[in-house]
Amino acid sequence: MSYKFIYIFIFASFIATLVINYYFSDQLLWMLLLIPSVAIIFLSPTWKTTIVVGILGIILIMVAELFFYQSKILYEDVVSLIMTGILECIIFIVISFFQIKTAKLIIELGNFALTDPLTGIYNRRYLELYMEKMIPLSQEQKQVMTLIMFDIDHFKKINDTYGHHAGDAVLKKIVRVIKGAIRDSDVFVRIGGEEFIILLPNCSLEHGIKFAERIRTTVENTKFIYKGIRIFVTISIGVTEYIEGQDLKKFLEKADQALYKAKATGRNKVVGLNNPIAFQN
User: Fold this and answer.
1) Catalytic residue among 65, 194, 213, 241
2) Which of 114, 135, 150 corresponds to the end of one domain?
């Protein structure tokens, strides 16, 4: 539904409510004010909006009644107006409650679909959606883009030796450490198991390799302690730069080739595809 249509609907229903209450003196007709009020909550489903709209609605009713009828208002009309206002507030709060809960649920479901439940970073589905927009933009603006792919060395051995809870703890800590090193514009993704991707917009292969080496060193020097036992953790990293015309599959395959070379030649190192530089411990 178009937001423009909703704004027009809110304005039209608000004016209609004022006109109807001007020509008819039944206080129950102020219940019509629920229509634009609920539409506003649809646009901004928060308790702050609910409180502001509720207070403004009460003020509007009082001012409008005084302006429309002035000295003609009787005691019975005041009582009826108060009861109508209370009933309207109750209905409005109940509707707002369900709309706010629904909006939060939709956000949570959306986040769940696009994030990794263990580490809280993005998952492969988010990467696919992001790259659908990023690849055409990169080609149009001639921007460089580098992809870092890494996994944890001998992660199965960590799980077998210390247990899967220890493995989960290692994954979570690596994510915390690396999140503290990347830029806000970088995209950090867990694509499965112990394998991760960092997409670096506006970053050349040379700078990507240097950045990857900083990450490798940081992880190597980080103390991973689980139940009082230190677990020595290192990562192998493959780095590649985007080439115009590639799709996401080919882009990932190049990074995977670089990662495979890093693992095959000793692990705990950074290898850039089509670049002779390789940092090694």
Assistant:
1) 194
2) 114
- Both 107 and 133 in one domain: the answer is no
In-domain check, residue 175 = yes
> Residue 208: what residue type?
G
CA distances from 63 to 204, 229, 234 (A): 63, 70, 70
- Unique residue bearing structure tokens 């002779």: 276
The total of other beta-carbon atoms located within 10 Å of residue 98's CB is 11
For the full predicted model, state whether its pTM sits above 0.70: no
Cα distance between residue 97 and residue 110, in whole Å: 20
Task: Give dist(CA 63, CA 52) in Å, integer.
Answer: 16
Over residues 210-263, the pLDDT tens digits come to: 999 999 999 999 999 999 999 999 999 999 999 887 888 899 999 999 999 999
E strand or H helix at 118, and its extent?
Answer: none
- Is residue 194 among the annotated active site residues? yes
Same domain, 53 and 82: yes
Domain identity same for 128 and 110: no
Helix crossing, 3-23 with 34-43: angle to 10°? Answer: 160
Domain span at residue 145 reads 124-280
The answer to whether 119 and 176 have CB atoms below 8 angstroms apart is: no
The structure tokens listed for 83 are 């009861």
Please check whether residues 146 and 258 belong to one and the same domain. yes
Indicate whether 259 belongs to any domain. yes
Using the 3D structure, point to which of 65, 91, 114 is the last residue of a domain: 114
Tokens, residue 86:
């209370």
